[in-house]
Predict the 3D structure of the following.
Amino acid sequence: MTTETSTIETKDDTKQTGLVVVEMQHLKKSFGDKEVLLDINLVMNKGENLVILGKSGTGKSVLIKCIVGLMEIDDGKLLLFGQDISELKAKELTELHRKIGFLFQSGALYDSMTVRENLEFPLRRQVTKVSKKEMDELVKEALENVGLSDTIDMTPSELSGGMRKRLGLARTLILKPEIMLYDEPSTGLDPITSKEISNLILEVQKNYHTSSIIITHDRECAKLTANRVIVIKDGVCAAEGSYAELEKSDDPWVRSFFE
Amino acid sequence: MEKIILEHFQNKKQEAEIIPKSVSVIISNTVVDKFFLEVYSLTIFTARFFREVVKPPYEFNELMKQSFLIGYKSLSLVAVTSFIIGLVLTVQSRPTLAKFGAESLLPVMVAISIIREIGPVITALIFAGKVGSGIGAELASMNVTEQIDAMQVSHTNPFKYLVVTRVLSATIMLPVLVVFSDAVGLFGSYIAVNLKGNVSYYLFFSQIFQSLEFKDLFPALIKTFFFGFAIGLIGCYKGYNSNKGTEGVGKAANSAVVFASLMVFIIDMIAVQITSLIQN
């Protein structure tokens, strides 16, 4: 079991001492002949917001899909909560994955269901059954947290892009995950809505005490949410540091992300 | 298609390393290769269906919902087409039978045509057009918008929730629709007979039921289960394995209808051969 004690600065200006919740060692992933991730080594601490930057097609989304189990790694080690996933049985791995939430780029709301049904769906799939009353309360609370209480009986097609993202976040948070993975949370949104989403990510970190990996191209979102930034280039982690550090990097390629 | 092959191999860890190479070797552009690759992946998909269908948990609520959507929502379309076919078949057959002085055999002839062949095949083709394309497009669009991935992240087996329920619903509901279609078709025939004559309701239907035998009804009903299974399975297969992008949604819906309709005819041909072998 790999545990590493570290101190991180959260965006709400509090100091947190935590363990390593996600660790990747020499992780590789390819699709046919195309090698996407060549040698990824990274560590995410408990309570930290880790932003991953990189050009399109560098495998940032693939990386977080490997964490949540949507894709399998080809080689290397992936440790979740200190446990090597290759040594776990399917049931144990499922239990670990239950602690991870994933916000999809498009929100990935179920079109055939109402907002209420979308939020109830993950609750119904839990091992521990939730009563109707509890479910109603959880749905109400989740919607209030993202400011969408009025939309409960609407369908996803009636919602705007920003609302869909917020609802996607509410659906993920309803299970109170310990790790949140955000796949380009502000893509396709106007600057104001984008800032709202970034603030929501900070609120989630503060209120739910989650550790998050945020994949983004949005400089403002990265600046606002990141405790630490990793830049991926050619399938490896090319640079790592705080936003302020990387902004002043000597490497012009790294600096170009912040200009 | 590539996805399903990968999924299949990924179940066996020691084989995982050979995936990329074998896939790149297998995938070639020739029509023959594509055909066999399609058959191979459809076989894996079918095998997975049979594995998942017996494995708990069972998605009863979704099965009921899909049966309602697939079956009940198709009733009006099936009713209209069956009524018209029964009516037209009777009107078209009357002059020929009248030439041989066999007009009195009209109800029996139409009934046997409808129950044995026209009812099941026409209903299955309508079903393939409405339900097969609907399933293909729905699953493909869920694939494009990452809803299937979201389901997996919500700790739900998307294959069980989406594919198994839809295939089972199609398999169960098509025979029900065919029985309904046969009844409406015969009613259409009764109306047509009375357009140029005066045959009582009782006489018309008693003539039909006296002439019908078990061998007319049973094989016709059995084959509809296979029609429903094939339509549901092909619709799900095309949608679940569609390419990402809106183009993939259109392609999935289109090819689901084409392949499902083709399968209906192939199954019908096999069923007729088996039936005649048994009866002889």
Notes: The two ends of chain A are 40 Å apart (CA to CA). The longest strand of chain A covers residues 20-31.
